[in-house]
Structures are given as C-alpha cells and as structure tokens.
Amino acid sequence: MSELIDRLASEWGAEGFFHDRRKMSFSTNNAVRFLDLVESIDVSILSEREKKDAVLALWDQPFLALAYRDRCVEAGADFHEVQKWMVEISRVVRRKIEELLDAAPDREISSGVVSPNGSKMRLPGDKFDLDAVAQLAAADFPAIVPFLDDLVAWVADGNWPVARPVADLLVSIGADAVPALRQVLQGSDAIHQHFVLLLVGSRLSPDVAAALLGDLERLAGSPTPDQVREGVSELAEIILQKLDD
Question: How far apart are CA 82 and CA 65, in angstroms?
C-alpha cells in the first residue's frame, strides 16, 4: 500500500503526470494512466490502517488537479478535454473512497476504555466525527496510547474539523505521542508532515520536542522538493530555533 501511495504522490513530482500540466500541456495518455492507478487499488487485500491511508492519499487529488485547470486552459489546452478529465478524476476518486469507507467497519476500541457515562470509546469514523475525539479526550489516557497511530492520521489535513481537536489531544499526551509523530515525519507525505509540525510539533514542550530532534534536523537540512514546497523544512527550522532558545 505504501508503494501505491508513493506512486500517487509522485504524480505531483518532477516526472509525474502533473509535470506536463505545470508546463501547461495536457497528456490524455498520462491522464488515463493516473485514473487506472486509482482504480487499481484492491480494497479486499487492505488492512484497516491501509484503507485509511488510501482514503487520506486520495482525498486531495481532485482539489490538487483543479488548481492547474484554468492555468492549462489559459496556456492553450482544450477546456473541454481538461474539464472532462476533471469530472472523471472526481468520479473515480469519489467511488474509490466510498468503496474504502464501505469496507471499513466502525471501530470501537475494545480495550475497556469507557467515558464517564460508561459508553465505549471509538476512533473517528470520518473527518466530521468530533464526538469520537471528545470521547477519547475524556478517556483514561494510558488506554488510548495503542491507537495513537490511528489518531495522528486525522491531522493529515488541517482543514478537517477533527484535525485541531486531535492535535490538541496529541499535544496533551506529550512524550507518548512521539512514536506516532515520528512515523509521519519519516514518511513521504509532505502535506501530512506540514500539519503535524504546524498543529502538534510547534506546540510541544521543549523536552518532548527534543525527542524529534533527529527528524527535525533532517527535514530542515535535507528536505525533499515536496517538503520545501509544503513548508515542512521551514516549520522544522522554526521548531529547532525554539529548542535552541
């Protein structure tokens, strides 16, 4: 699954499909290749974590594509050809996300975590599920530690309603959240890394942030082009400066 997600992300790199669009051209063959890549995701073989990763990877694709449409048309691309592809990528991505979500059962934490009124805790079911985050925040802290990898996935987009309350929860957890944060910082999703640093990393106490020192130094000193473009390296440098103060 990680390989497929990396391939989706690579479409925004120097040699990807959208490289042609940045040069204000439009390749029908490459557009079809991109749609085939999305269609190739086999939901039946994915774990629950992989399904969530796939949804997060797919979510922004139509919006990212839309950002280039008008510029391509202004540069001479045929509007109807580009618009037809825009409609198709939205349809294909929406259908695949629905397939992934339909295959993902509601997850109730079965480790004995209960709210003050005795109800079971559960992980967010979607980006609007603020009730689930509130229940987790009210739970006994040690019991939710095994689910931090799942929680940090909901900080992948700071525009999601659950992103900031989940970030608040991760900040309050402190050192125990570090392994989940490092997993993101050592990955390839620059957008996710941006929001983890912005919403969580920049708010950690100095002693907790120091546990991320190696990752922060790498992101600030040797960032990828995507990490530079998404402001990851800049955020890492700001956090490092705070640690030096």
Answer: 10
- How far apart are the C-alpha atoms of 147 and 170, rounded to whole Å? 11
Residue in this structure with the two tokens 């669009």, named with its chain if needed: 21
Only one residue has tokens 């392994």, namely 179
User: Are residues 198 and 171 in contact, defined by beta-carbon separation less than 8 angstroms?
Assistant: no
Query: Are the C-beta atoms of 181 and 199 separated by less than 8 Å?
Result: no
Share of the chain above pLDDT 70, in %: 76
144-202 pLDDT, tens digit per residue, is: 777 888 889 999 999 899 999 999 999 999 999 999 999 999 988 899 999 999 999 99
Instruction: Burial-class residue 16 by CB neighbours within 10 Å (0-12, 13-18, 19+).
Output: middle
Residue 198 · residue 170 · CB < 8 Å: no
| CA 34 from centre of chain | 19
Neighbours of 32 (CB within 10 A): 13
Terminal C-alpha separation, the chain: 41
Q: Are 150 and 123 in contact (CB under 8 A)?
A: yes
Tokens of 181: 């944060």
pLDDT of 78 reads 76
